[in-house]
Amino acid sequence: MITKKAVLSIVGIILIITITLFNGCKSTKEENNAKPGENVVKTTIPDAVVNPQTPDNPLRLKPGDYKINNVPDDAPKSEVEKAFGKPNKVESDENDFDPGSKIITWDYDGLSITFADEQLINFYAKSDKYSTPRGAKVGDSKETIIKLYGKPSFEDKETISYFLENDDMHSISFTLKNNIVTNIFVGSYLD
Fold first, then answer.
1. For residues 59 and 148, which has the higher predicted lDDT (pLDDT)?
2. 46, 123, 168, 176: most buried by Cβ count inside 10 Å?
3. Residue pair 125/73 in contact by the 8 Å Cβ criterion
4. Using CA atoms, how far apart are residues 21 and 88, in angstroms rounded to an integer?
5. Dihedral sign for Cα atoms in the order 42, 48, 53, 54
6. With 0-12 CB in 10 A as exposed, 13-18 as middle and 19+ as buried, what is 181?
7. Alpha-carbon 150 to chain mean position
8. pLDDT band at 62 (very low <50, low <70, confident <90, very high)
9. With contact defined as beta carbons under 8 Å apart, do 139 and 156 qualify?
10. How much is the pLDDT for 190?
């Protein structure tokens, strides 16, 4: 015969397992770095969808897609300057990921271009004066982007991103507000 104490123990174990499964069992970087007694705020991306750009997708990314106004994201500084002219502003900071090197940002009206020393890393377009090889630009609808690029590799309420297969550090990402593109990121993330 099962005792009341045994039933309560089983119910308690089931409750603990259910709560653990509901809340997840992994810790976050914030939790790992928290001081004892410190409250931690966790953030999650709601309704995110992740889909790799597989070979069966006829609209999948190709290396030639990583351009703004036909300037590739691996162009030398001289080619960038020839295409866009002298920048309005130049900023230089230490590269935390590569001690001794610099992160240099060239700012134009509606466009920022980031270099790691002499190597172009990425473009960040904030104006419809700049477009991708497929014609995507600021002001386009989410629907237009999906017609141009197909199913996103990543999607949430405010972002749709496309990655080359097996390369999630190199992307074309579109920031959205009310399903309209407000910014375009083309290139690599600093790691």
1. 148
2. 123
3. no
4. 52
5. positive
6. buried
7. 17
8. confident
9. no
10. 74
Q: How far is CA 130 from CA 68, 106, 110, 121, 154, in A?
A: 6, 15, 8, 17, 23
Cα–Cα distance between 187 and 174 in angstroms, integer?
A: 12
Q: What is the pLDDT of residues 5-20, one digit of tens each?
A: 443 344 334 434 433 3
State how far the Cα of 122 lies from the Cα of 105, in Å rounded to an integer: 10
DSSP H or E segment with residue 49: strand 49-50
- CA angle 81/85/86 to nearest 5° reads 85
User: Does residue 45 or residue 157 have the better pLDDT?
Assistant: 157
Q: Which residue has the tokens 């931690």?
A: 40
Q: Between the CA of residue 190 and those of 35, 63, 114, 182, what are the distances in Å?
A: 28, 18, 10, 22
Task: Provide the whole-model pTM.
Answer: 0.70
Q: What distance in Å separates the CA atoms of residue 139 and residue 131, rounded to the nearest whole number?
A: 11
